[in-house]
Specification:
By secondary structure, the chain is an alpha/beta fold. It contains twelve helices and eleven strands. It binds NADP nicotinamide-adenine-dinucleotide phosphate.
Length: about 300
């Protein structure tokens, strides 16, 4: 379908995005932004509530009429209170694959398919490396539990045909108030007990939450956006030690106390600890080329906003 046909369809449809996992950290911010831009948002959740549908309702009644579908559902991987055992790994996988599958199937079956289908996955797709630099066309997705997860997750989203525009945003660590990884870091850093994790040399691909939801809204609204976009800041070539220093500076606290890798491995398990102890240098080449303009391209300003 050509762009002109999309444009004419946009004006006929109500602007109602459907948002899986929209009750979480990113989903709440995205809902606010979409509402501010005049969209009516319908959430898909495990828990019924007014203005929401459940995953079971989606499976039985199909996709409500909407112009876009977005999936953010997924069990929190870095929950330090959960042991990294087989049962938890299954939950991490199935919460992402099954919800994505359900939405993709519902889109395929919908009599009026949405114009856009957007999935958030992660930069864990790219192999951690002290030297390599990855853009959206770089290979990956086949070397450990998390990269395999991203491959299966993105495959679960794929639709046959092209009546719906498909976008995948591979996100870095999302920095924002009231959630995500930084939620766990703020207290020790405020107490002056923060510092680099492990060696601190690993890359720390980050994005401010306002930019991640901005990229998602851009993906929904701009009819030329298609395929994979890296959801990281353009200056996301920061190492973990530089990140720790910048967070300490934003808080006006020293940040010299390293968190030893043995402690991280004991809390998270060796396989999951890789997410914190290793990192990848990721550049948002296609995101920038798509015309998205960042609100927080630099780490210092991004962190100042988060800790304000
Ligand atoms: N935050 C980050 O730094 C980051 C980075 C890269 C990628 N991502 C990805 O972005 C997505 C959203 O992240 P987030 O930080 O907003 O997560 P979040 O705050 O934990 O929210 C995720 C939402 O997913 C739903 N969910 C949780 N466990 C589920 C399960 N077992 N089955 C079905 N649904 C479940 C929940 O909705 P209900 O309770 O309403 O069902 C929850 O509100 C996740 O897939 C995550 O992997 C996040």
């Amino acid at each position: 379908i050509h762009q002109t046909e999309w444009t004419s369809r946009t004006s006929q449809l109500e602007e109602v995005p459907v948002l899986g996992g929209g009750t979480g950290f990113i989903g709440t911010a995205l809902t606010q932004l979409l509402k501010a831009r005049g969209h009516e948002v319908t959430l898909i959740s495990r828990k019924p509530a007014p203005g929401r549908i459940t995953w079971d309702e989606l499976a039985t009644s199909g996709l409500p009429r909407c112009d876009a579908a977005i999936n953010l559902a997924g069990e929190n991987i870095l929950n330090p209170l959960r042991r990294w055992n087989e049962a938890f790994q299954k939950e991490v996988l199935s919460s992402r694959l099954e919800t994505t599958h359900l939405l993709a199937r519902a889109i395929t079956k919908a009599p009026h398919p949405p114009q856009a289908w957007v999935l958030v996955t992660g930069v864990a797709y790219y192999q951690p490396s002290p030297t390599a630099e990855y853009d959206e066309d770089s290979p990956g997705g086949d070397f450990d539990f998390f990269s395999n997860l991203v491959t299966k997750w993105e495959a679960a989203a794929r639709l046959p045909g092209d009546s719906t525009r498909q976008v995948v945003v591979r996100s870095g660590v999302v920095l924002g108030r009231g959630g995500g990884a930084i939620g766990h870091m703020l207290l020790p850093f405020r107490l002056g007990l923060g510092g680099p994790i492990g060696s601190g040399h690993q890359f720390f691909p980050w994005i401010h939450i306002r930019d991640l939801v901005g990229i998602l809204a851009h993906a929904v609204e701009a009819s030329h956006v298609q395929g994979v976009l890296n959801g990281v800041a353009p200056a996301s070539t920061t190492t973990n030690a530089e990140f720790a220093q910048a967070l300490g500076a934003a808080l006006g606290r020293p940040a010299f106390i390293p968190l030893p890798s043995t402690v991280v491995q004991a809390v998270f398990g060796r396989e999951r600890a890789i997410m914190l102890l290793e990192g990848q240098k990721v550049v948002p080449r296609r995101t920038l080329a798509s015309g998205y303009q960042y609100s927080f391209p630099e780490l210092g300003a991004a962190l100042k906003e988060v800790v304000a």
